[in-house]
Amino acid sequence: MELNEFQVVTNTSHMHANKYNFNSSTPPSRLERLLRERELRRFNRSLQNIEESTDANIESGPLGNELCLSDGDNCGYFHDDELFEGFNNTVRNENERKEKQMTKQRLLVVANRLPVSAVRKGEDSWSLDISVGGLVSALLGLKEFEARWIGWAGVNVPDKIGQEALAKALAEKRCIPVFLDEDIVHQYYNGYCNNILWPLFHYLGLPQEDRLATTRSFQSQFDAYKKANQMFADVVNKHYKEGDVVWCHDYHLMFLPKCLKEHNSKMKVGWFLHTPFPSSEIHRTLPSRSELLRSVLAADLVGFHTYDYARHFVSACTRILGLEGTPEGVEDQGKLTRVAAFPIGIDSDRFIRALELPQVQQHIKELKERFAGRKVMLGVDRLDMIKGIPQKILAFEKFLEENPNWRDKVVLLQIAVPTRTDVPEYQKLTSQVHEIVGRINGRFGTLTAVPIHHLDRSLDFHALCALYAVTDVALVTSLRDGMNLVSYEFVACQALKKGVLILSEFAGAAQSLGAGAILVNPWNVTEVAASIGYALNMEADEREKRHWHNFMHVTTHTAQEWAETFVSELNDTIVEAQLRIRQVPPLLPNKTAIERYLQSNNRLLILGFNSTLTEPVETQGRRVDQIKEMEPKLHPELKEPLKRLCADPKTTIVVLSGSDRNVLDDNFADYNMWLAAENGMFLRLTTGEWMTTMPDNLNMDWVDSVKHVFEYFTERTPRSHFELRETSLVWNYKYADVEFGRLQARDMLQHLWTGPISNASVDVVQGSRSVEVRAVGVTKGAAIDRILGEIVHNKGMKEPIDYVLCIGHFLGKDEDVYTFFEPELPSETSLLSRTKVSDAAKSPSMSKLPAVKIGSKSSHHRMKNQRPWLNHEKTTANHHRGSGWSRDNAAFHEGSSVLDLKGENYFSCAVGRKRSDARFLLGSSDDVISFLKELVDTSSST
Question: What pLDDT, on a 0 to 100 scale, did the predictor assign at position 28?
Answer without folding.
Answer: 65
